[in-house]
Amino acid sequence: MSGLGEVWPTVERALVQIGGTYDRINRFLSLGFDVRLRERAIRIAGRDCNGRVLDAGSGPGTFSQLALRIWRGADLVAMDPLDVMVNLCKRRIRTERFDAVRGVFERMPFRDGCFDVVLTGFSIRDAIDLRKAISEVRGVLREGGSYVLCDISKPDLAPMRFIVSAYWFLVAPLLGLLAAGVKGLRVWDIYRTYRRWPERGKLIGLLRRYFSVEKVVNALLGGALIVMCRKNTFRKFLSLTSNVEIRPGNSRNEG
């Protein structure tokens, strides 16, 4: 449950290589359900949002585009560690309610409590340090703010886990090949992220150490999930955990 660690540079190279065909590959891999899952995640967070929203690990901005369309009153910031993805976001989304910045999960370039909603769409499993990433998500949320995770899932039951694992190991690269040619085979690197991704129960348990988990939705026969979380008050957070590191200060710049 530690995150990608030393595997991240390999995954990073794969993401850079497939950057321009990222959305097309996602359509193939999810059999067209990836957009529906993101839309469902946004609506679970609320039918309307008039505050500040962060799309963390935004990729080319698919989640951001959907959120801006559904939440007409929201101001949204997309954050991604890769220049190619940040540039794609800026080219695709041109509105005064949007900005895109480069940043990593483990050290977000924002002040504490400045967002009302944080979205992560098929992205936080790419974090180098998963615990640190989730802690940072909590940090940039205001008290009572919402965190919505939409991602692939590693089932708790071994037979289902084997099926999902086989899909990412064998089927997904072939679909990537069909979607984007030879470079689409780099989709196999998603299997690296899947191997280090915690089982569903462990992931929910980790989220509960930082948030109140309000809703869990299983999708794609257990191969994907949406989790809706709420940031606890600081006092309640302390009562929930005694061994999560709490920093006395924060060096984030104002976003």
Walk me through what this model shows.
The protein is an alpha/beta fold. It has one domain: 3-Layer(aba) Sandwich (Rossmann fold), CATH 3.40.50. It is built from ten helices and seven strands. It has a seven-stranded mixed β-sheet with strand order 3-2-1-4-5-7-6, sandwiched between helices. Strand 4, helix 6 and strand 5 form a beta-alpha-beta unit. Helix 2 crosses helix 7 and helix 3 packs across helix 4. About 4% of the residues have low confidence.
What's the arrangement of secondary structure elements?
Elements: H1 8-17, H2 22-29, H3 34-45, E1 52-56, H4 62-70, E2 75-80, H5 83-92, E3 98-102, E4 115-121, H6 130-140, E5 141-152, H7 158-180, H8 189-196, H9 200-208, E6 211-219, E7 224-231, H10 234-240
Parallel strand pairs: 1-2, 1-4, 2-3, 4-5
Antiparallel strand pairs: 5-7, 6-7
Helix pairs in contact: 2-7, 3-4
Low-confidence stretches: 242-251
- Helical amount among residues, as a percent range? 40-55%
Average pLDDT, to the nearest integer? Answer: 86
Q: If strands are numbered along the chain, what order do they take across the biggest sheet?
A: 3-2-1-4-5-7-6
CATH topology group: Rossmann fold
| Main sheet overview | 7 strands, mixed
Question: What is the number of E strands?
Answer: 7
Gyration radius from CA atoms, angstroms: 17 Å
Number of domains: 1
CATH class: Alpha Beta
Order of helical and strand elements: HHHEHEHEEHEHHHEEH
Please tell me the CATH architecture by its name. Answer: 3-Layer(aba) Sandwich
Separation of the first and last Cα atoms: 29 Å
CATH superfamily: Vaccinia Virus protein VP39
**Protein structure class:** alpha/beta
Strand content: 15-25%
* Outline: globular
